[in-house]
Design brief:
By secondary structure, the chain is α+β, with helices and mostly antiparallel strands. 21% of the residues lie in helices and 42% in strands.
Length: 491
């Protein structure tokens, strides 16, 4: 019996020793591929994945919108791996290799970086042919910020594989991808590092860890990395990209999936037309915005300019002019909606229509300027006689119900000369307009229309919303900014 126990104990020791040796072998092989990615905002981890194309992978949230980064690979002194972070960062200028971002996929939280050279002894990792399964052992190397050490090893088990959505970068980066959930001990600085199986094949890329659960981390499935390496970007609509390529139109994209297309107008002048990266529902169909920027200015547009654009919109069966405030700029776009499932011909026709309309207004205003006619170019607001009235200057839109329950659309234009213009119509009916004069003291709006004097209550809910009350009827008006206004941050 004693001999049997000794034999069993010896087997356990041998198994443990073999496991330790196997883990050590994985580390020695993987560290030759691992990198530290340094940006102006911090650092993360990554790995060389394609030696021929000199490509490194890491996380999108490590790089963000940076165009260039510095890449540091492990180095040895007197046969020993240099692991002291301070020493490595001290010699950053000496050993760092310049890299440029060549592919971004925000939804997958992945980025590809092309480096100028590959140091001697550094080798590319292999991607696993098959996905891992729950219970499998995995290994990772990263550069956690909490310690003054680099090329730190950790191992664990796969918990599960599934598709999920979460946000990074304080909620500004939505991620929607397949993940490998693990019990790896992940820390800030490990992001973007390789996760491999016992054969040292990449099965995932470190992405995030749970702050609510102990030892739960989310790693991007290697199948997503493989797709990006093949040029399949989840933030870019492949069908749209193919349609633009087939039409011979040059374009670029941003991480939000927006296309910036160079479209020749009717006189062959190139106009940049943007195709939105998001889809929204309009009148029961899925559509995307296609629009071109005409002008962006610091000052708001005048009521006269807004009315001129409204009149032009009424003359058109295709598209419309819209005024949108983006950050601190007041922008004028020509916009048309295109069916999200439109064919190539429909998409190209829409792009050319937007380009032609934008170019047409440019030439029209240039011609007026040459002939010394008063230009209708949107101009900054003139100074109002009073600060209170100044807040009203412009065009406001709203709607309400008449006595029969029908929806009535309203528009009010307040001018700097003290005149007021009302426009209203039931849905589908002809627009009726009335003009008069107004006075406003901050709470009471007095005006006359068609010989009738009105004394109503008008207050600001916020800078872009007014509430109008007259004889028990309450109407809410919004400052004229045509909707829908989706994905502005990404255009």
């Amino acid at each position: 019996m004693k001999t049997l126990k000794n034999t069993f104990s010896l087997l356990i020791v041998l198994v443990v020793a073999a496991t330790v040796q196997a883990n050590s072998n994985v580390y020695k092989q993987l560290v030759k591929s691992t990198a530290m990615i340094v940006t102006s905002d911090g650092h993360g981890s990554g790995a060389l994945v394609d030696a021929e194309r000199k490509l490194i992978f890491t996380n999108y949230h490590v790089v963000g919108e940076a165009e260039t980064v510095s890449v540091v690979f492990p180095r040895y002194e007197d046969g020993e791996l240099v692991t002291n972070r301070s020493s490595v960062l001290k010699d950053l200028d000496r050993y760092a290799i310049p890299g440029k971002v060549v592919a971004r996929d925000m939804k997958r939280d992945l980025v590809l970086i092309e480096i100028e050279s590959i140091p001697e002894g550094i080798q590319a990792v292999e991607l696993a042919d098959e996905a891992v399964s729950p219970g499998e052992t995995i290994h990772a190397i990263g550069n956690p910020a909490a310690v003054d050490a680099l090329w730190v090893y950790t191992s664990g088990k796969v918990r599960q594989l599934f598709r999920t959505e979460y946000t990074l970068s304080e909620g500004t980066q939505p991620v929607s991808t397949r993940v490998v959930e693990t019990d790896l001990a992940i820390n800030p600085g490990d992001s973007g590092g390789p996760v491999v199986n016992d054969a040292c094949e990449v099965v995932a890329v470190v992405s995030a860890y749970s702050t609510k659960s102990r030892l739960v981390s989310s790693c991007i499935d290697a199948r997503e990395l493989k797709a990006l390496l093949e040029g399949k970007n989840s933030t870019i609509d492949t069908a749209t990209a193919n349609a633009l390529t087939d039409a011979g139109l040059e374009f670029t994209t941003n991480p939000y999936g927006v296309f910036f297309v160079q479209v020749p107008a009717f006189d062959d002048e190139l106009i940049e037309v943007r195709i939105a990266g998001t889809v929204y529902e309009h009148r029961g169909r899925q559509v995307r915005q296609v629009r071109a920027l005409f002008v962006a200015q610091d000052e708001p547009f005048t009521g006269e300019a807004a009315l001129m654009l409204m009149q032009k919109n009424g003359e058109r069966k295709f598209g419309a002019w819209e005024i949108v405030k983006i950050e601190d700029k007041h922008c004028l776009f020509y916009r048309a909606d295109v069916n999200a499932e439109s064919n190539t011909d429909e998409l190209i026709q829409t792009l050319r229509g937007v380009a032609d309309s934008t170019r047409g207004l440019v030439l029209e205003l240039n011609e007026k300027s040459k002939s010394n006619e008063p230009s209708e170019t949107p101009a900054p607001e003139k100074q109002s006689p009073t600060q209170l009235a100044q807040k009203l200057i412009g065009v406001w839109n709203g709607e309400g119900k008449d006595s029969d329950g029908n929806t009535v659309g309203y528009a009010i234009r307040f001018d700097t000369d003290g005149t007021i213009h009302w426009f209203f119509a039931e849905q589908g009916a002809e627009v009726v307009s009335q003009d008069g004069e107004f006075e406003y003291n901050g709470e009471q709006l007095k005006f006359n229309l068609a010989g009738t004097q009105y004394n109503t209550k008008l207050t600001f809910a916020d800078d872009d919303t007014i509430v109008y009350v007259n004889n028990g009827t309450t109407l809410k008006f919004n400052r004229y900014q045509p909707s829908p206004n989706r994905s502005i941050a990404g255009t």
